[in-house]
Write the structure tokens for this entry.
Amino acid sequence: MQDRDYKDYGYDSTDPSHIHAGLARAVFELAGPLGPPCRVLDIGCGSGVICGDFQSRGCDVMGVDLSESGIDLARRNFSGCRFELLGVNDVSLDRLGEAPFDVVVSTEVVEHLYAPRELVRAAYSVLRPGGRFIVTTPYHGYLKNLGISLANHWDVHADPLWDGGHVKLFSRRTLGKLLTEAGFRDLRFRGVRRAPFLWMSMVFAGVKPGRS
């Protein structure tokens, strides 16, 4: 999604979402060793909940989002992190005024973007060599799509009347391809919630090649 098309999500709480526990568990399984001096960037941080999770593990954390309500809540509730009102197109080390990051995370964001490659390229550009990118999105595959179709549930699952809603539906293959196209290697996968191949969401981690 281009920044000019963004619709503020309208955050009113820092309470974890209904899938936060499953996502967070998988994210931290794939993140590798954490704690000082690990530096983390959350692209599309919302109200800062994942940032707070990383901070509680001793990381130095920054979050960016286009939601004014989300950034306001994040700044008030996770004061030890840095938060900036920025979109994907503005994510660069020069713009952030930061050194390369050890971990970049983006949870349930890529499905909202008209140009998802911009997110992955931005993540790659701000990581140190050997750094890790972790991205999550709702899972789609043959069995799940078939089940949604048989239940006549697509109008609810992908509601076309939701301004700023999901505009991309990723499978394990297409999300993996998105990361490998950008240069990420050593991809790792986790399915989150529900039975295998009916997962609610999926988590991929990829490593930027090289050594810092």
In short: Residues 29 and 190 are 9 Å apart (CA to CA). The beta strands are 39-43, 60-65, 82-85, 101-107, 127-138, 185-192, 201-207. The chain has one domain: 18-207.
